[in-house]
Design a protein that fits this description.
Elements lengths: L5 H21 L36 E6 L2 E7 L4 H12 L8 E5 L3 E4 L22 E2 L13 E4 L9 E2 L3 E4 L6 H11 L5 H9 L12 E7 L1 H8 L15 E6 L5
Antiparallel strand pairs: 1-2, 1-10, 2-9, 3-4, 4-8, 5-7, 6-8, 6-9
């Protein structure tokens, strides 16, 4: 990523960042559609959690193991975003994500997957259009959940409600930011970064310009190095890895107490 003079070019780079975001996270609805084999019952809008907790039962956070050709990640799903959590768990249990590709990867930004059309896609074909038949999930923005490195979030198209794709997701790679850059983002977008968030973006990194625009519903607890490896894979002009990177997901059983 190019280095810029912040005092002279901070506003132009924010527009550039926004353009990159739209291309990478909302562009899946504009890509050429590949034949999709339906594996899940189609739904218009998911209004209720798919799974209901037993009354009075305190459960542990759901954790998912994502096994890829580049290594394994452990992801924790947030209980404060139950619609996204329960939908993701449902798809994992059905084996929906097994053999799908990470079809779009961008260093210092994110890795994206979950397009059902990627399972049998030919080499070099444009991906990112699949999943519309599953409907959308209402946005679940939480001020305490933000796009730090390793954040798991839902992709979406340009719908006015900012509702999420029911299957496509991305994991943040990101980069670190300065106080001046973060201050400018807050002023430009009218959002607030807490002191803890600012410290994280300055030290760990992330993609703060996506906050409160895409739903964050989990985070990688183990395997941040795997994210970097996938993001830096050789790729074509559409940011699809030249060598397929497939995934397999499993729910990790809760530890017994």
């Amino acid at each position: 990523m190019m280095k810029v003079n912040l005092k002279k070019q901070i506003v132009p780079i924010l527009f550039l960042i926004t353009a990159m975001m739209c291309q990478s996270l909302t562009g899946y609805s504009q890509a050429r559609k590949a034949p999709v084999k339906k594996t899940v019952t189609a739904k218009k809008i998911i209004k209720k959690p798919v799974v209901k907790k037993a009354p009075g039962k305190i459960s542990q956070p759901v954790r998912i193991k994502i096994i890829t050709d580049s290594g394994t990640m452990i992801v924790k799903l947030y209980d404060s975003t139950p619609l996204h959590r329960d939908n993701f768990v449902k798809l994992v249990k059905e084996g929906f994500y097994d053999s799908l590709l990470f079809h779009r990867v961008i260093p210092q930004f994110m890795i994206q997957g979950g397009d059902p059309g990627s399972k049998h896609a030919e080499a070099g074909s444009l991906l990112g259009a699949g999943g519309d038949e599953l409907g959308r999930i209402p946005a679940e923005f939480r001020k305490t959940l933000f796009h730090k490195k390793g954040a798991l979030a839902a992709a979406r198209d340009q719908n006015p409600e900012k509702a999420s794709s029911a299957c496509q997701f991305y994991i943040v790679v990101g980069k670190t930011y300065t106080d001046e850059q973060l201050k400018m983002m807050q002023e430009q977008r009218g959002i607030y970064f807490s002191p803890a968030q600012i410290q994280t973006y300055k030290t760990v990194g992330g993609t703060p310009f996506l906050d409160q625009d895409y739903t964050v519903f989990g985070e990688v607890e183990k395997g941040l190095d795997v994210i970097e490896k996938i993001a830096n894979a050789a790729r074509d002009e559409n940011n699809r890895p030249l060598t397929d990177i497939r995934m397999h997901m499993e729910i990790i059983p809760a530890a017994k107490k």
